[in-house]
Write the structure tokens for this entry.
Amino acid sequence: MKKKIRTLTAAFLCMCMLVITGCGSSDDSGVGGIGGRNSGGGDTTGGPVTTQATTGDVITTQATTGDVITTQVTTGEVITTQTTQQVTTQATQQVTTEATTQQTPGVLETVTIENDYYSVTLPKTWTWEEWGVGAGFCFRCTNPDDPSMVIMYAGTLSPIFTSDQQKQPYYNLGEYGQIYIDAPVFADQTVSSIFNWWEYIVQYQIKYQGYSLFPAMTNVVDQGSQIKNDRYHNMNANFTDSIGSAYATSANGTSVVCICQASIGGDPMDLFAVGYDNNVRVIYDMYFVECPQDKSEYVQQMMECALSLQFTEKAAQGN
């Protein structure tokens, strides 16, 4: 099976990408970023918040009290029921049958998480982490039984640039400008650039915020991007919407396949009156999944889970 999956072709991945449709939305009231950890909304009392639910398929979370929330969703014990039916041949005898539920191979059991700000459908029993509010809202959902299975969403990631020239004025800003000087320079505004800079971005995030939202991966080999231009590009031609795939090695040494969808861009501006564009670029609405190559039958459903994120009207109004 592993040999078969390892030979997945780009054509297969393209087919997966064409099947995947839809896109969440994010509010512009806050700014997250590659260069700074997002803080939770409202008052914070410090420390992680852990929630467990075992009573149904819909989980409602309340207001957060820390800037990192971890939710462990469980389904509790498997319940086995028994029924008795009468079967008559020459005599009446009791036959007990046991009814059990089994998960369909290649299909993840999911649960819907809802609160005043968003709803999202994710695999049951997976660990959920979130950061930030508004446009800076991000989450990562990981399979505790296989950490190389990851679903991730990032509302806003910045700064990035499209040329080294754009960085020049930031050299005059001293320590404040260092985060811009170290920012990655994308060859184009597609997810291929994200994959090509992946390992650098992980180290960049660790340097400036002490952790990395991006899962650690090595040997990342971009398989190309497909331009979508169906959301941000329609609102602002300076943004490019795209979806793409890559092969890589996960942090635990597993060969994985990854799918990423994102909008990348920003308005060209001369912020320092030096005669050329030096405005930073931004990654908006980045949806990402990482999955072992020998479990690639889950990739499409995992991406659908990421794309299921929907923000409420209250979130859109910034309340």
Remarks:
- Helices lie at 2-6, 10-19, 178-181, 191-196, 198-209, 232-235, 299-307, 313-316.
- DSSP finds eight helices and 15 strands in the chain.
